[in-house]
Amino acid sequence: MSRRKLLYPLVVVCLVAAAPAFAAKGGPAPESGTIALNLSSSGGAAPASPSLGSQVTFTTTWSNNVKNPRVQLACYQNGTQVYGEAGTPDHLFTLGGYASLWVTNGGAASCRADLYDLHWNGNNMQEVVWLANTSFNAAG
The CATH number of the domain where 48 resides is what? Predict the structure, then answer.
């Protein structure tokens, strides 16, 4: 019997035995997170619902492989963005800011906050990995 015929079954057995170990490792775990609205107050009780000028923060969680978590908040009236801001997960957002279309227009808005991971790629384009979002309505 030739060496090739003897080695072939041995190689197949080794590969089959090693397959579960390679499959278990897989690639890197996917990034994940959660985000929920908090209402802040500057003295006194927190408002029952957010409104233009309210200060809000977000409770966020993320997986260990997230390196640069950020929160992006955008508010809309009739499909048009009237306010937007981004910051760190512990950032205090003032709804409408101090000079936005929302401040000018007044009225209610629908808002969405996104938790994302910003990947820096040196001199190349940055990459955003969206992790979670939450939506809420805010009075005018």
Answer: 2.60.40
